Amino acid sequence: MQPVYTIFGNHKDRGREDFSHFTGEDYVNEVMNARLAPPEGLAAPLSIMWELTSKCKNRCIYCYNDSSPDRLEQLSDKRMLSLANEIIEMKPFNICLTGGEPTENSHYLDLMLLFASYGLKVSTILSGANLNSKYINIISKCVDTLQISLDGSCPEIHDSVRGRKGSFDEAINAIREFVEKGIDVRVSFASTSRNIDDFKNTYDLCKELRVTSLRTQRLARVGRAKSKTGFSFYPSEEQIDNLEKFLYENAKVRNPMIEYAEPYLHLTTGMDVGITTLARITSSGDVGISPYLEAYFGNVNEEPFQQIWNRMKKGWHNSQMYEIASKVAMDLDNMESPLEEKVYIR
Ligand code: SF4
Predict the structure, then answer these.
(1) pLDDT tens digits for 36-90?
(2) Whose Cα sits closest to atom 3 in ligand 1?
(3) At the topology level of CATH, where does 20-344 sit?
(4) Would you kindly state where each structural domain of the chain is located, as residue ranges?
(5) How far apart (Å, rounded) are the C-alpha atoms in residues 346 and 343?
(6) pTM to 2 decimals?
(7) What is the Cα–Cα distance from 247 to 250, expressed in whole angstroms?
(8) From atom 6 of ligand 1, which residue's Cα is the shortest distance away?
(9) CA of residue 59 to ligand 1 center, whole Å
């Protein structure tokens, strides 16, 4: 199979190198591009991303869904349980439990155990906060992959990006504990003006910590990163050029592997094939097609998830969604936010 290319914007137009060889194969996209998916769309999502809460101890300068200690949105206990049962019946391949900080939701471990017991591949995204031996043991038993965010090689840089002292130590301790248990730990690094120059040091630290991969990408223009203050954290062209030079020189490293992604690439694939593979459920129950577009096909507080999915399974070819996605995909270097307010597609 040819690798699917994930690149950092439109390099050829910008006179830059093609960085396509930095990333591995994406089998879902391969299937879609090869037109192997049923033309009427999939009966259920292949992958579900469930944001269990908007609460998070951190206040990262770029947070894509604006999570913070002051945000408390999450579904009622009753709806969480019924939604979990709906998801199990739909039989997706993978469910990613995320947030906010998902461990702020008191049902996090129970949901993880439940999904794992039904054979779903479970992944989760953590900051490193709130972990103790009970959490580490259960998560280690249940997860297929685990992502922990690390936004710098030292507390001064990481904590300044994450908005909280002590967050660096939590992330490092969590990585060490999970690696020690043999878990496939992937690290994500958000490239902002504050930390992008520290990417190489962070890579060296990840190597020492024995993580599987280190991933970075351009900031998506959503959540806090779409505010005026958020814009000021975008790296300069010079900083991006320096990062790309490092990536180019280290394209073949594997321990850990570096992944360099374009956050909006899935839009072009989606617009091309029309069929939806991922469902994102936000902490307030909105169901979307992409983590980076605040455009939703419904809310699980108003109707069953399957009913929403039936409407969105060919959602990329919905005329309203197509228009939104085209606007973003055609102008990747535009710093303006694609959507000022969230949009419901009916
Ligand atoms: S740790 Fe994650 S969820 Fe929390 S504020 Fe940062 S990016 Fe958002």
Answers:
(1) 778 889 999 999 999 999 999 999 999 999 999 999 999 999 999 999 999 999 9
(2) 100
(3) TIM Barrel (3.20.20)
(4) 20-344
(5) 10
(6) 0.90
(7) 5
(8) 60
(9) 6
Indicate if ligand 1 lies below 6 Å from the C-beta of 291.
no
165-178 pLDDT per residue, tens? 999 999 999 999 99
Closest C-alpha to 280, from 63, 125, 56, 52: 52
Ligand 1 mean position, distance from CA 67 (Å)? 6
- CA diameter of the chain: 54
| Nearest alpha-carbon partner for 9 in 218, 271, 243 | 218
Burial class (CB in 10 A: 0-12, 13-18, 19+), 112: buried
**Token pair listed for 264:** 């909006």
The answer to whether the beta carbons of residues 89 and 76 sit under 8 Å apart is: no
Q: Which residues pair with 149 in a beta bridge?
A: 188
Question: Which residues, 6+ apart, have CB-to-CB distance to 309 below 8 Å?
Answer: 44, 45, 90, 279, 287
Atom of ligand 1 nearest to the CA of 162: 6
Ligand 1 centroid to residue 60 C-alpha, Å:
5
Q: How many CB atoms lie within 10 A of CB 251?
A: 14
Residue type, 261: A
Kindly report the backbone phi and psi dihedral angles of residue 272, in degrees, each rounded to the nearest multiple of 5, phi listed first: -70, -50
